[in-house]
């Protein structure tokens, strides 16, 4: 017999007795009251049971969540170990090949006239390696004039070897041996990229292309159309024995004297497609590397413009050296300068013609009028964008008014 309903019934009878005999309920009413209370008690029991089941379910879910967390921590640890193993592992042959680039260029020249010779002027190989998205290596090895060694006319030269870092999307730096950011040809001089068999005399005698030094540089953008470069690097080492000629001062980073550093700055403006304007300044603390007390600092100023539109092209460049000291002044080498202007027209992707007027003065050691003039006219034929055949004729006038080195030039060049 369930004692709980009975106790409830007794409690109800006692309540009725206290209320007075006149209000005493019938047995049927008492029995209904007992059943109602019993139903309420059963509902409470079911609610309690449901609550207990929910608590047990939550405990199971909590345990499952904790197990998942432990499993995830183990997976993270295993992933970290795998990544570290990959980073520590030497690159495979396939990875090395994917991140390494090989290129180069070369040019064969025939010079008729006073020179009357044929020469494989340059054979260059480029090797680059991408260490990461932000760090890369660039190198360039050159053989000049086909044959190098004792008594041979050529040289083997390391023209570039530097590490470049991307600091962010608009700022990068490099350190090592690199081409200086000066003029039009010094950084970009592959044969298919310019007219004429020989490089223009201004960027050969005044800006001593190809010109590389060792140091560090920083390059960036004020805006997409305004770009800048700044570099600190080794410098030239001219001397009175070479009449302070700038080109003869290149040390090519071969046990180079480094008593006095040099600083180069460039600003480029690209306002519209096809148009580039640029200005350069370089300061040499002592252009003789403190070897000549009669000489001192030197400043190079240059500017150029490049304009290409609808096949028509126009290039112009001006450069000037100012050398300090009584030594350069006594030999007429304190100012070395020059300029050229070059119109061209490319009929289609295969054929183009040009003319170029050059004027320069670097005849160090000669205080009389020493300005050279040279006019070049010629044609380029590109059977492929990276292969070119060239022909031009140059007319040269000497400072004394006599005829200079008039000649025909033929050439073939390539890049890859």
How would you characterize this protein structure?
It contains five helices and 16 strands. The protein is α+β, with helices and mostly antiparallel strands and 416 residues long. The chain has two domains: 3-88; 165-415, Porin (Beta Barrel), CATH 2.40.160. The protein has a 16-stranded antiparallel beta barrel. It is elongated and about 150 Å long. 24% of the residues are buried.
Biggest sheet architecture: 16 strands, antiparallel, barrel
Strand content: 35-45%
> Based on helices, strands and strand pairing, what is the structural class?
alpha+beta
Number of domains: 2
What is the annotated CATH architecture of the largest domain?
A: Beta Barrel
**Number of helical segments?**
5
In sequence order, what are the helices and strands, one letter per element?
A: HHHEEEEEHEEEEEEHEEEEE
Broad CATH class of the largest domain: Mainly Beta
Radius of gyration from the alpha-carbon trace, in angstroms: 43 Å
As for the CATH topology of the largest domain, it is: Porin
Termini gap? 104 Å
Question: Brief overview, please?
Answer:
The chain has 416 residues and is α+β, with helices and mostly antiparallel strands. The protein has helices spanning 3-19, 27-88, 93-98, 202-206, 326-330, and strands at residues 100-111, 117-130, 135-144, 155-168, 171-179, 212-223, 226-233, 262-269, 275-284, 298-309, 312-323, 335-346, 351-361, 372-384, 387-397, 407-415.
């Amino acid at each position: 017999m369930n004692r709980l309903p009975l106790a409830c019934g007794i409690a109800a009878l006692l309540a009725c007795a206290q209320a007075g005999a006149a209000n005493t309920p019938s047995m049927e009413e008492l029995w209904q009251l007992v059943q109602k209370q019993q139903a309420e008690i059963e509902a409470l029991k079911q609610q309690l049971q449901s609550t207990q089941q929910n608590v047990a379910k939550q405990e199971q879910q909590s345990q499952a969540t904790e197990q998942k967390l432990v499993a995830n921590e183990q997976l993270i640890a295993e992933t970290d170990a795998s990544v570290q193993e990959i980073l520590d592992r030497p690159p495979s042959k396939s990875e090395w090949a994917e991140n390494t680039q090989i290129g180069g260029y070369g040019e064969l020249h025939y010079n008729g006239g006073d020179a009357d010779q044929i020469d494989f002027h340059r054979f260059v190989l480029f090797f680059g390696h991408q260490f990461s998205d932000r760090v890369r290596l660039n190198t360039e090895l050159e053989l000049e004039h086909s044959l190098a060694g004792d008594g041979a006319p050529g040289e083997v030269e390391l023209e570039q070897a530097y590490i470049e870092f991307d600091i962010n999307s608009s700022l990068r730096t490099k350190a090592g041996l690199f081409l200086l950011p000066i003029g039009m040809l010094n950084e970009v001089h592959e044969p298919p990229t310019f007219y004429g068999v020989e490089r223009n005399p201004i960027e050969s005698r005044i800006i001593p292309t190809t010109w590389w030094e060792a140091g560090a540089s920083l390059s960036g953008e004020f805006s997409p159309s305004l770009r800048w470069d700044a570099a600190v690097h080794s410098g030239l080492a001219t001397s009175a024995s070479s009449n302070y000629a700038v080109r003869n001062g290149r040390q090519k980073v071969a046990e180079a004297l480094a008593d006095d550093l040099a600083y180069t700055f460039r600003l480029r403006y690209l306002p519209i497609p096809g148009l580039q304007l640029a200005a350069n300044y370089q300061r040499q603390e002592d252009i003789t590397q403190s070897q000549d007390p009669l000489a001192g600092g030197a400043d190079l100023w240059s500017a150029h413009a490049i304009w290409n539109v609808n096949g028509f092209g126009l290039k112009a460049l001006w450069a000037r050296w100012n050398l300090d000291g009584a030594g350069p002044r006594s030999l007429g080498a304190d100012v070395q300068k020059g300029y050229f202007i070059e119109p061209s027209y490319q009929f289609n992707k295969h054929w183009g013609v040009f003319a170029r007027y050059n004027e320069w003065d670097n005849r160090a050691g000669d205080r009389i009028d020493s300005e050279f003039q040279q006019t070049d006219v010629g044609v380029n034929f590109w059977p492929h964008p990276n292969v070119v055949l060239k022909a031009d004729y140059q007319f040269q006038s000497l400072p004394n008014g006599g005829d200079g080195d008039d000649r025909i030039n033929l050439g073939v060049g390539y890049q890859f």
